[in-house]
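USER: For my understanding, would you kindly supply a protein sequence with its structure tokens?

ASSISTANT:
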Amino acid sequence: MQSYLVSPAESRAPRDPGRHGGLTIELISLPGAGKTTLIEATIARLNSRVRVGVIGNELAASDAGRETSEPKPENPDLTLIESRGDPNDTSGIDPGKRRTVVLLSVTDGDDRPDHHLKMVATADVVIVSKAELLRSLPGFSLDSLERRLRGLGCKAMIMPLSAKSGLHLDEWLNWLETELAVYRQSPADSRRDF
């Protein structure tokens, strides 16, 4: 497996993943929205083609063994940063210009963006996670969520998906691979502005 999971405080964490030629994606959400599940599904699907590095901020007890048992790729193509949106989560990490992805769980309701204005306003993508539960949540409306996001000035692509069931996961993977291809084609000296 060509992936790794470390905490930002760990000395082995890449302090400047953007400098090593890889694209950096910051995944932001409150705990429980599905970041870790999305990261695991992403690694499982991309791992044969893309060297993926992960910097985790919410290491659970089940993740502890992964910190040292999996080899870390040299110069990952893609570094995923797991964050709660707190600047302290990623302090000391200089990934250059990163893409920002915000996860909003359907279980939190369609008014969640109102509570996280700053996060959604700067997002490149808003993932509506746990989409497999939409049928069992009659009070949740994707249309209402999109109206709220647009009303808050969010111009991000909105992607409902389920990392657990795989529902619409290909759309996420296609976006990642497109972003990675564009990043690789950009001149090296302009990548910090990517």
In short: Residues 1-97 form one domain. Residues 7-14, 61-69 have pLDDT under 50 and may be disordered. The chain has two domains: 1-97, 101-172. The radius of gyration is 16 Å.
